[in-house]
Amino acid sequence: MSRRAVLWVAFAVVHVGVAWLGFLMPNEPMGDVYRVYDPWSRQALEGYGIVGITEPWVYPQLALIPMVIVQAFSWIAGYTLTWALLVTAADAVAFAVLVGRARSAGRVTAAWFWLSFIALLGPVGVYRLDGFTVPIAILGCLWLVGRPWLASTLLAIATWMKVWPAALLAAGVVAVRRRGAVVGGALFVSVATLGVVAALGGAANAFGFIGDQTARGLQVEAPVSMFFLWGALLQVPGFWVFYDADMLTFQVTGSDIDAVIAAMTPLLVVAMSAVAGLGALAAVRGVRYVTLFPPLSLALVLGFIVFNKVGSPQYLCWLVPSVLLGLVIDRHRWIAPATVTLVAALLTQLVYPVLYYGILVPAPAAVTILTVRNVVLVAMFVWMLVRLIRIVRMPVTAGIRPRHERVAA
């Protein structure tokens, strides 16, 4: 059996296995699909209002598209399983582009990393909207140099489904020589999306997802929530975990939490600006795309997670495109970050869905594992910052761009 055939067999086994585990594991790892995606899309199709248009929504407007697509084909196997089939199909397209004929050692390594990550993160990486945006983002990253218009269009579409790919777009604007194409593709998608939203009468709700994010409290899994979660575990008066019915998430509360909530969004903006500034300084000094983009994009994505008030378990799959591209470009340098990413994925699956009850009603083992997972993410963020600083400090002659840069097929 050829190396490519082995990869595709592994692809099928991993996706079937993870989709099947969603029905077996505790704490409903595919709950969002049938509890919110199905009702939202059914509501739109039956004429009872369109989320993001007729009412504010937690997601950007294009997030409804895959939900409606699944609704149209739900006769195949029911809504939940059809969602898994859609994500698998999207993964297959990106996997095919990544692997090609399986002649590149870097691409083969990246493919095994991605399959390992899917298995270690578990069902939450498939049964969430984030899982659908990951293959789109992977294609965007692979094509940023060779097809910047197409790549930025794909990344912008993914951003208008879930905001996180904006970090990849920002890194692309900084690191890619053809910045006009990167900005142009993203601008085209954004203008077209907002135009359709306005034409449907939803201008007032066009950016409702931003308001929802800035106004929400601290979700229990977020790194910033660890102090309050440990307070709840230790039964400190005033500290506990509760369910927010508006956000459909479990959150924490405790002493002076309002000040922390208010500070997190400005802190996120400052952190992301600082990372982007480091990247811009490296770009001005002539650092190559292949050297700059992977650590810059990963640092920005990690910043989105580390300084976020949410921290849902599926956020871990945001790390895949940057690490995958790093392996494609320089697998030896990126083996260590890839390994740490896989460890973080495993810890995340242990937290959710396996031990999640021990987070909601805090228990030492579950809270400790979640804390270790968050420490790993913070350490990765610092690691990428150090890499960026070293890149900025490289001698200018070491960072001169070659005349042509091409990393994608």
Question: How are the SSEs ordered, and which strands pair?
Answer:
Elements: H1 3-24, H2 31-45, H3 64-72, H4 79-99, H5 105-121, H6 129-143, H7 148-159, H8 166-175, H9 179-199, H10 208-215, H11 226-233, E1 240-244, E2 249-253, H12 257-284, H13 289-306, H14 320-354, H15 357-360, H16 364-392
Antiparallel strand pairs: 1-2
Helix pairs in contact: 1-4, 1-5, 2-3, 3-4, 4-6, 5-14, 6-7, 6-14, 7-8, 7-9, 8-9, 8-12, 8-13, 11-16, 12-13, 12-16, 13-14, 13-16, 14-16
Order of helices and strands: HHHHHHHHHHHEEHHHHH
What percentage of amino acids are in beta strands? under 5%
Adjacency order of strands in the biggest sheet: 1-2
Query: What is the makeup of the main sheet?
Result: 2 strands, antiparallel
What are the low-pLDDT stretches, counting only 5+ consecutive residues below 50? Answer: 398-406
Query: What is the count of structural domains?
Result: 1
* Helical stretch tally: 16
The helix/strand class is mainly alpha
Radius of gyration: 21 Å
Give me the oligomer status: single chain
Number of strands: 2
